[in-house]
Amino acid sequence: MTGVVRSEVTTRPLDVAEHERLVANAGAGAVVSFAGVVRDHDKGRTVVALDYEAHPSASHVLRQVAEEIAKDPEVVAVAVSHRVGSLEIGDVALAAAVSCAHRAEAFDACRRLVDEAKARLPIWKHQHFADGTDEWVNCP
């Protein structure tokens, strides 16, 4: 399959290898993937957990981003998902994979996919810190 093979905002755990399998294609010599993983720190503070909340338009915005990347004639297929809800340290919050005929184009397309998703998605992150404080971060 070619084009956008997955674009979703979901509460389910994300599997980057599954995204890679979705974009695999006999005409693609390169598959590049990205896992945005919940880390245990932010700006010198220890993060213990976080929650993501999405605007109702988030799925539509993510689909638009994926379709824009898929329009690149070098791109064979695109798969991207963002998780919402309560996540723990080490969980994948953003999974992305792109296939292209060649590696340089695949790396570039995957970078653009992730950067555009991070810049445009109406998803907010609520971080919980070890000291009992919390902070909302607007992703777009």
How would you portray this structure in words?
With 140 residues, this protein is α+β, with helices and mostly antiparallel strands. The protein contains 3 helices and 9 strands. The strands form 2 sheets. Strands 3, 4, 6, 8 and 9 form a 5-stranded antiparallel beta sheet that branches. The chain has a 4-stranded mixed beta sheet with strand order 1-5-7-2, sandwiched between helices. Strand 3 (41-42) and strand 4 form a beta hairpin. Helix 2 (58-70) packs antiparallel against helix 3 (103-120). The longest helix has 18 residues, at 103-120. The relative contact order is 0.27. The model has no long low-confidence stretch (mean pLDDT 96).
Characterize this entry briefly.
The protein is α+β, with helices and mostly antiparallel strands and 140 residues long. It is elongated, with a radius of gyration of 15 Å.
